[in-house]
Amino acid sequence: MKNPVQPQPCTILSVKKESAHEWTFRVATDAKPQHGQFMQLSIPKVGEAPISVSAQGEGWLEFTIRSVGKVTNVIFQKEAGDTLFLRGPYGKGWPLDQFRGKHLVVITGGTGLAPVRSLLRACADEPGLVEDVHLICGFKNEEGIVFQNELEEWEKKFHTTYALDTDHKEGWRTGFVTEFVKEIPFHQFGGSYAVVVVGPPPMMKFTGLELVKCGADPDKMWMSFERKMSCAVGKCGHCRIDEVYVCLDGPVFPYTVARDLVD
Questions:
Q1: What domain count does the chain have?
Q2: Do residue 77 and residue 186 come from a single domain?
Q3: Residue 166 domain-assigned (yes or no)
């Protein structure tokens, strides 16, 4: 019987610098996660960190990582050909069956784009998976923009709004993502839509409130929580919020649950 918490050695296939602080690591593995699930990445004698899958293909997964601590700092020292240990996938991903054939609204802040990147790639590559995509991506500044090539490709396939909080960039808007929610044509969707929101907790809180204010149905909204998971199997209690275990019950939650999770 396979040990669900036994890390497996995997080879790093490539490393790509996305921004000043985020790099994408492509790792060889046969794991097949759902869009929105996460894996535990580890370095022996250093530790492990939960990282959402940002893209996937036959025999590989990609992880877009921000260097913010002991484990990720060591991962950033790795190169193609080196070994990284993985276990998973864990958690609940995006409810794709509830998105099929509907208008999909995706709103992200900063590296919150990473947990929905594989979903967006699927929507771009599979015509008819959803009716269309309305994508709002916000970044603090130009230096923080990730997945620039894909952002350009998605402009051709989706309804896109790209924004920087305070900076100015040609072709981009200036302002927080909440300012552009009112431009989403919910009245044209005939009730057939789904909304995904991912970003820092304050961004998700105020985006959720603005969505409801603009007529979005709370029952058709989902959010993903980025929280420090440890065991990933609901045993240690490290990621517990009230009676909810993020590693088991999330990281993707219906908004009707997410809005009441107070850390």
A1: 2
A2: no
A3: yes
Range of the domain at 187: 96-258
Other CB atoms within a 10 A radius of the CB of residue 70 amount to 11
Q: What confidence tens digit (pLDDT) does each residue in 101-115 have? A: 999 999 999 999 999
pTM: 0.94
Q: Tell me the CATH number at 183.
A: 3.40.50.80
Extract the tokens encoding 76: 């950033």
Whole-number Å distance between alpha carbons of 39 and 233: 11
**Helices marked H in the chain:** 70-75, 96-99, 114-125, 148-157, 201-213, 246-249, 255-258
| pLDDT tens digits, 4-51 | 678 999 999 999 999 888 999 999 999 999 999 999 999 999 999 999
For the cut 80, the answer to whether the pLDDT of residue 228 exceeds it is no
Is residue 1 included in any domain, yes or no? no
Closest to 111 in 3D by CA, of 14, 7, 203: 203
Burial class from Cβ neighbours inside 10 Å (0-12, 13-18, 19+) for residue 34 reads middle
CA atoms within 13 A on the CB side of 214: 19
Cα separations in angstroms, 73 against 43, 45, 207, 254: 11, 14, 31, 32
